[in-house]
Amino acid sequence: MNLNVPACFLYIDPGTGSMLFTILLAVIGASFYSMRLLFFKLRFRMGSCKAERQEAVLDLVIFSDDKRYWSIFEPICAELDRRGKSFTYLTASEDDPALKKKYEHMEAEFIGQGNKAYAKLNMLEAKLLLATTPGLEVYQWKRSPGVRCYVHIPHAASEVTLYRMFALDYYDAVMLSGSFQLQDIRALEKLRNLAAKDLRLTGIPYMDEMKKRLQEASPLAAQSRTILLAPSWGKNSIFSLYGARIIERLLNTGWQIIVRPHPHSFQVEKELIDDLMSKYPASSQLEWNRDTDNFEVLRRADLLISDFSGVIFEFALVYDKPVLYTEPDFDLSVYDAWWLDTPLWTYSALPRLGIALTESKLDQLEELVEDLLAHPRFAAGRDEVRQECWAYPDEGASRSVDYLLEKLAEVKAAELVEEKAGQES
């Protein structure tokens, strides 16, 4: 047999060769990525297996993925402790204020960061777990077979649909502060054919506590006009839209300026923040604020400039002061809100709280501030927004604990029914 192949059959034209080479690289790249993904999955599962299994099933557990959420949980923890209800507080922050809190009925524990924390949570044995962390069962945090009920509490007074997609789909229950939040969740459940979650309006415990602190605080010493610039992070934030120009404009007014970037900015926008802090270092006129507790900085400010950050609602509704906000222009494609036909509630709320700062108005910044501070015409709008997003003012902690204990009793009752049915079978 003649195995000599004519040269013409071995020839590959340059275009075809390039295409085949590209396909080969793609196959190699995909294989490498798949193997790498498998490696990380195996490593995570091995880490989970190494986690120590707890000795007993806990009743009520609170999980915080960051120390800055202690303000969300503290009023609830205080109320649980006041009622003598034992509970466990798990945190992924080694310096969480909860770890130094001396509540008689609270056991606080640092469980590590990242995968180490989630490895423990994924093997947790508890009847009920409360968290403000979205993305249960979507990312590395999985539902533990040993946890009977997962309850979510939002960390802002605005939409829960501005979480990333599927953020609350795998929770059993959600504690809410406004009927618009409830309606949005029900709409998502219908669209995704999900079982109905237990939804309850309980109010906003942390804003209740902030209001109480404000009422009890001693009067501030006389000070010059103070403006707080508190942007969120990402491509729609003030710094992404206006960069250094807005700091420059504010400094030119001669007012006291406090800049308080979102904590996440120091991680995901480090280069931007470092550049701004280098160009505009702290001075007698300018303060860069990173306090974990924002109570004092909000109290000191006469006016807030922000974007779509939840701090707008705290400042306007608790401190009863006006705001300048950038007009929201969200790319909703990665958020739960993308699924809904209804407009964001925030779009209707912001114009009732203050004035939109647009590109064309940036040169009029000083006049806008003067106008907002001189005329209290947004007081009625603040009252309307409060009624829509802040159910049961001053009762949030009490109603939240009532609900948690109610759910805990339901879980225990269901376990007794299951145990009895098992004995009879």
- Write the CATH fold name of the largest domain: Rossmann fold
**Tally of DSSP β-strands:** 13
Q: Describe the strand arrangement of the main beta sheet, using strand numbers.
A: 3-2-1-4-5-6-7
> Kindly state the mean pLDDT as a whole number?
87
Helix/strand order, N-terminal first: HHEHEEHEEEHEHEHHEHHEHEHEHEHHH
CATH architecture of the largest domain: 3-Layer(aba) Sandwich
Low-confidence stretches: 1-23, 25-34, 36-41, 47-51
**Could you tell me the radius of gyration in angstroms?**
26 Å
Class by SSE composition: alpha/beta
Summed up, the domain count is: 2
What fraction of residues sit in β-strands? 5-15%
Largest sheet: 7 strands, parallel
- Helix count, DSSP H or I runs of 4 or more residues: 16
Sequence-ordered SSE layout with sheet pairings:
Blueprint: H1 7-10, H2 14-50, E1 58-64, H3 70-82, E2 87-91, E3 106-110, H4 114-121, E4 126-131, E5 147-152, E6 173-176, H5 179-192, E7 198-201, H6 205-216, E8 226-229, H7 238-242, H8 244-251, E9 256-259, H9 265-268, H10 270-279, E10 286-288, H11 295-300, E11 303-306, H12 311-318, E12 323-326, H13 345-349, E13 354-357, H14 365-374, H15 379-389, H16 396-424
Parallel strand pairs: 1-2, 1-4, 2-3, 4-5, 5-6, 6-7, 8-9, 8-11, 9-10, 11-12, 12-13
Helix pairs in contact: 2-4, 3-16
